[in-house]
């Protein structure tokens, strides 16, 4: 299938899943292009995709340079402190904030306000990045010190499993945590958004109320 056909199918599935969950809007699709060429990313643009995600500095800068100016670029992976300055001025959304050290470095280097998602390891799997759910509130409160960081929401990666009920429960836990932070009315942390759902679980995420799904393999494929 072409990227265009995949995109259409995904949009329809997201619409149905969002309605099933009782939501009046559906998530925006971020095309994760880390596995594919610039040409494939441009194909996604032609199909109507305007949000693009990359998890490494080099790939991010290369795709940003090649794509038209009206795309929104999302940095979706962990950033190393020494790499922050190479990329941060090109980043509109950062999806993987989980350390104060990185927040401090971003704040020092950046020329605009970065819309950040705090990454949460809801399942508690040791292999994943992100904070434990119990640590989220204190971490977000501490981010008030960094004027260029705006916490717009929470992000998670579910484990790779076909246990849909389990994944759904993880996404709902993240949503409840989002609601709790939002209700604190912190001026640096409106925390209205949820970044969750990938190729394997975007329909579950949409049903659970995702605002952004990050889709690579299923949308643009995976080149070896
Ligand atoms: C690679 C990646 C994705 C997309 O993964 P697919 O399974 O190919 O859809 C989404 N989010 C993050 C953080 C990633 O690193």
Automatic annotation (TrEMBL):
Task: Output the superkingdom of the source species.
Answer: Bacteria
* UniProt entry keywords in alphabetical sequence: Pyridoxal phosphate
Residue numbers of N6-(pyridoxal phosphate)lysine PTMs? 34
Domain (Alanine racemase N-terminal) ranges: 28-222
Q: Care to name a GO molecular-function term for this sequence?
A: pyridoxal phosphate binding
What's this protein's family per the entry? Belongs to the pyridoxal phosphate-binding protein YggS/PROSC family.
Does the record carry Cytoplasm as a key word? no
Summarizing the function annotation, the protein's role is: Pyridoxal 5'-phosphate (PLP)-binding protein, which is involved in PLP homeostasis.
Please report the name of this protein according to its UniProt entry. Pyridoxal phosphate homeostasis protein
- CDD domains hit by this protein: PLPDE_III_YBL036c_like (cd00635)
Species lineage:
Bacteria, Bacillati, Bacillota, Bacilli, Bacillales
Q: Does the keyword Transport apply?
A: no
Q: Which organism is it from?
A: Staphylococcus argensis
Q: Which SUPFAM superfamilies match?
A: PLP-binding barrel
* Cofactor dependency: pyridoxal 5'-phosphate
Q: Show the Pfam families listed in the entry.
A: Ala_racemase_N
């Amino acid at each position: 299938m072409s990227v265009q056909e995949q995109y259409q199918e995904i949009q329809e599935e997201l619409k149905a899943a969002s309605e099933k969950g009782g939501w009046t809007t559906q998530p925006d699709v971020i095309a994760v292009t880390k596995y594919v060429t610039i040409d494939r990313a441009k194909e996604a643009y032609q199909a109507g995709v305007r949000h693009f995600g990359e998890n490494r500095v080099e790939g991010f800068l290369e795709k940003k340079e090649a794509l038209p100016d009206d795309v929104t670029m999302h940095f979706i992976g962990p950033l190393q402190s020494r790499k922050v300055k190479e990329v941060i001025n090109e980043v509109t959304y950062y999806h993987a904030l989980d350390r104060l050290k990185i927040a401090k470095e971003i704040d020092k280097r950046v020329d605009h306000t970065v819309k950040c998602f705090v990454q949460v390891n809801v399942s508690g799997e040791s292999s994943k990045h992100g904070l434990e759910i119990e640590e989220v509130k204190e971490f977000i409160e501490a981010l008030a010190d960094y004027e260029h960081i705006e916490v717009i929401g929470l992000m998670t990666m579910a484990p790779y499993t076909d246990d849909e009920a389990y994944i759904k429960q993880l996404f709902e836990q993240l949503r409840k945590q989002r609601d709790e932070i939002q209700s604190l009315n912190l001026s640096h942390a409106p925390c209205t958004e949820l970044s969750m759902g990938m190729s394997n679980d975007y329909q579950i995420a949409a049903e659970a109320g995702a605002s952004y799904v990050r889709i690579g393999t299923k949308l643009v494929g995976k080149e070896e």
